[in-house]
Amino acid sequence: MNDPKDPLLLDHEADGIKELDNNLPRWWVIMFYLCTAFAAVYMTYYHVLKLGDLQATEYQKEMKLGDEIKSAALSKFESSLASLQPITDKAKLAQAQEKYTTLCAPCHRPDGGGLVGPNLCDDYWIHGSNFVDNLKVIINGVPEKGMVTWKGLLQPAEIHAVASYIYTMRGTKPVNPKPPENQQQPDKPNQYE
What is the mean pLDDT of residues 176-191? Predict the structure, then answer.
């Protein structure tokens, strides 16, 4: 049993437990003072003197840098469009089919037969029927007809892959397709619209 005259024991107890008056461990006290000093320096540097960028500003700088990198990659891709050929790799085309099904099929149907958007399987294409024209339409969209501009949303490789997948649909025969664009009459809307 502890001696009641022990200098480490405090003069009160709770439920038979007496509290010791120990000093905190030296490492803990040093860490406490270091953290306090760091907090004071941090607050002075960032908030009082405003010598460093806060998180929101750092985020804006990183976003600007990312946008510049993305714009440079897209510019390089757009300058090489004339030399691009459709992808034939089956694995890449399978990935492109998934992307097409998610992003394009709501307007063009999964089989490419056309809904709100035109039929992608026939030979009549308003905005050009060669592969480079298809790439340009995906990149720039057709905003006046409701086609989204995908250049800010898809990477150049994804655009190339989706255009390649769409190119494989040419000449297929979907069930009940939308009529070719040159056969629709303005006063007789398409059955899907």
Answer: 65
